[in-house]
Every structure is written in structure tokens, then in C-alpha cells.
Amino acid sequence: MHGGGAQPDAATLEALWRQALHRGLQRDYSKRLAAFEDTPMNLLYYAAQQEEGAALEDRRVCLQALSALSKPKDFRRRQYETLPGKSALREFAMDVGAPVAGVVGLGARLEALQLPELTSYWQAEARLVAARDKIVDILTDSLAGGYRTLVIAHCFGGVLAYDALWRLSQGNEPVSKGGPASIDLITLGVPLAADAVRKRLAGAEAPVPQRFPRHVGRWANFAAEDDPVCHDKSVADDFRSMADSVGTVIEDRVIYNMAVRGERSAPHHSAGYLLHPAVAQEIAGWLRGG
Questions:
Q1: pLDDT, average across residues 276-287
Q2: Is the dihedral of CA 217, 253, 221, 62 positive or negative?
């Protein structure tokens, strides 16, 4: 599931995601490439605006530059500090402003300034509700078929993914016709640890354990340094009750996103997450079977 804002058309975006994931595995886990290429991929597309022209070309240039990084050590802090226009100001502003806004009841509005899709979704915009429900349908079919399933969600896509996983838990239990089914979750630069967002998630007011999705076996959350959308970088502490009551294994990783767009560091950019060595390691582990 992609993030908010303008995106390329669905076919182009899926190709770019595949390229980024492929490059991360090729660089660090080439033995898993065959398994990756044999794994069906379904991009859940919901963008309201399409990115074209110079912006799309800049996206391609960014991915090419990221793909040229040939070693895991190229993604360390020392290399990150050399990126042009690198700044922690937006993340710092969210770190400082979010607690204050929460006290005065403006936390949701502050988070929505970063992600306008949040307001649209909370107001039940049809396109976003339909995207969430499509995820439920896809995952229901996966569970019924007994398939191992990996959900990868970036940015606002993480909110849709979480709500869909919770709603999946509320329906009739799919009857598996295959082997044991499972769902694993990878989130990239998501706002799920923000108090104002967690309070609006599906099931937030339900008693434990009904409050949480029950089909997620493992949840790996990646948050990039200086990424303002995930200014609170740990979901494990906020969802500890999910781990305790449902048994989900939750792990947080703070990484350095080496993406550069418009000649400036872009720590929230999806490609910088998708081909990062830590994310490649997580995906390779899933492809290996755990």
C-alpha cells in the first residue's frame, strides 16, 4: 500500500515498487530473488492525483541513485549526514508540537497537516473507504486459500492496512482450504504511533483483545531518522497490549533513508525505505519462510 499525496499511475508505481524491492534483495540477498519473482504482488492503489512530468522523472532519478548504492554500509548515519538539504526541523516541530496539541485537543489536526488523507479518511471519503475494504477482500481470500501473506504499507497506507486488518478480525473466520495461513506486516514511515492517530484507529475503543487485529503474526515497523510522519518512531510500546493479548511479535527499527528528491534529502520517500538493507533483510526472511 502506497503513501499519501500524488503518485504515478498504478502500473508505473507498481513497477517502481517492484524495482526498489528487487534491488534491495539483489544487493544483499540474491538467493531470494527467484522466490521474490515467483511471489504475486498486488498494489492497492488509491491516489487522487497522479504525479507526472518532472516530478515523475525526479522519482525515477531518485530510485536510480538509490539503486547505485552497492553496500549496506552506504546506508549508515555517516553517509546520511552528507545528503544535501538534510534537516531535522520538521521532525523536531512534530516532536515538540504533538504533545502540546494533544493537551489542547488539536493533536488530530496537527497530524492531518502532515497527511491530509487522514482528515479525508476520518470523514469517510468514499475512495479511501473503498480502498480499505478492498484490502479486507484481498486478505480474506488469502486466509481462505491458506496463503502466507506479507502486507507492506508506507505512510498513510499503514492506517488503511491496520484498519483493514482489524476489520478482517471482526468478520466470519475464513475457512482455509490450503495449509496454515498467516499475515505478516511491514510498515514504513507510518503515523501509527501518534496518539491522535491511534485514538482514531478501528477498534480503538473496544476492550482488549478485541481492540487489535488478531491475524498478524509479525509486525516489523521501520522509521527513518528525520521523517516527520513517523516522528514517534516506536509502535512496540504503544501496541504492547496487542503483543501480549494477541501474540503478535512487534519490532521497531530506526533507519537512515538515503533518498534525495529535488536535490534535497527526502527521509519519507518510499523507495528509500523499500530498498533499505534492514527492509531487504525482513523481506528475505519472509521469503525464506520466517
A1: 98
A2: negative
- Where are the chain's structural domains? 10-288
Strand partners, 261: 264
Q: How many CA atoms lie within 13 A of 41 on its CB side?
A: 22
**pLDDT value at residue 227:** 95
Determine the Cα angle at 101 with ends 98 and 105, to 5°.
Answer: 135
The closest alpha carbon to 123, from 103, 108, 106, 102, belongs to 108
CB 191 within 8 A of CB 229: yes
| Residues 28-72 pLDDT 10s | 999 999 999 999 999 999 999 999 999 999 999 999 999 999 999
Q: Are 205 and 172 in contact (CB under 8 A)?
A: no
Mean pLDDT across the stretch 222-233? 94
Question: 10 Å Cβ neighbour count for 111?
Answer: 23
What average pLDDT is seen over the chain? 90
In whole angstroms, give the CA distance from residue 37 to residue 25: 11
Q: Which amino acid is at 135?
A: I
Q: How far is CA 169 from the centre of its chain?
A: 20
HEC profile for 252-265? EEEECCCCEECCEE
Given pLDDT bands bounded at 50, 70 and 90, which one contains residue 173?
Answer: low
